[in-house]
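Please, structure for the following, as tokens.
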Amino acid sequence: MSWNTLPDRLFRSVAFRLTLVYAVLFALVSCAGVYGIYFMIATYLRREIDEEILDEKDELAYLVSTQDIDQIREMFLLETKDEGLNNVFFRLTSSSGDVRVSCGMSRWAEQVFPSDWFTENYEEGAVLETVVVQPEGRKVRVFSSEIGPNKVLQIGFALDQHERLLAQFRQNAAMIITAMLALGTLIGWKMARKAMEGVEDVTHTAERITQGHLDERVRVAQYGDEIAKLGDAFNRMADRVQKLLIEMREMNDNIAHDLRSPIARIRGISETAIALRTPPTDIEQTLGNVVEECDRLLHIINTMLDISEAEAGIGRLELVDIDLGTVIRQAVDLFQPVAEEKNIFLRAEVNSLPPIRGDLRKIQRALANLIDNALKYTDSGGQVTLLAEECGRFLKITVQDTGMGIPDKDKNKIFERFYRGDSSRTHPGSGLGLSLACAIAHAHGGEITFHSSLGHGSSFSLILPRKKSEQ
């Protein structure tokens, strides 16, 4: 990875975007919180000075209404000395704005407040607001009120101290927000990186699997619930992929084995006929053997295609109403000669059954495969029995035999394509019968179950859903 692409990859990473979103949200929340505190402090300070002004107003209004101008001027001077000449302002004017007594904040001495101040009343005949004194730009809280006929009392308190306090608060708040934003961004980056470790582990594991290390898995336990679920799902997918690859490898080996034998026989028959200069009278038998082996190859290939179509769900089912009792009896009649030839007792126990909806030809083929397997692995003098019964929303056809049974090590693999146990290698077959029957059952919304005991026979059950109107 070149340094030129590093910033681009960083900016496009989920961790960076999560950190950016976290930082922006943190900054917005912090600014909103600080502004709220600032607003409450400013409101509190203004309310405090308003209460002080109103207290002064009540005291001065009484004295102004009872004393003459000289006494009022002396009283104003005393008040300004107590508060500071540059911090307070007192003035008594007429209703028209003529100044009678003015004290404090010398730059205000000649300023006359416009009469429209009294149109928006703070209370009846009064107004209280903040004004800016030029040219210094000082803020002053000013109260103006009519306290008698042709008498307007004005009181002003400079807000310098409050403004300095608020300015200091803004400065400190800016520094704190900057520090908190930096710390929050760092923490957000750490949290985002920690949250993405699981995803990176999944990515790394996927890359390792891609390189051929099929045993690699995500370490699920060390992450939170969401990442753990992702890792668990990934591990299950990897297990499934590994299993499929192993099955494909085994299936390829089995295909090679099962196809090689008939091809080798065809080649051998042909080479023998050429080498021995087979007379014309024997040509027909030789060609018959070749055709027989070719038919066996075609049967294997067609069965593989049927299984693939059934498992993929792309094969169209020709659905009709089916009487399973009739299907079972026809199957017994079909295999009766084979059973008699092997001296096996083949029978069916079938009561009246409700119809099912399915593909007749495929169901017949699935049942035929189960019966063929039962007869194939049952010795002379044995018995094969077909049972049919209702099981709630399903109908179950069971094929029981008294044959050799299935070893425990083979039970998990008997439905795999081309799989044949060691004990079945001596019997003819391709290892596709149970795979096809299982695929047909699944295509109809059913399944195949089995129970087997080594040396005591096996029992395979074809379970199919009843017709919906009959459920």
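DSSP finds nine helices and twelve strands in the chain. Confidence is low (pLDDT under 50) at residues 117-123.
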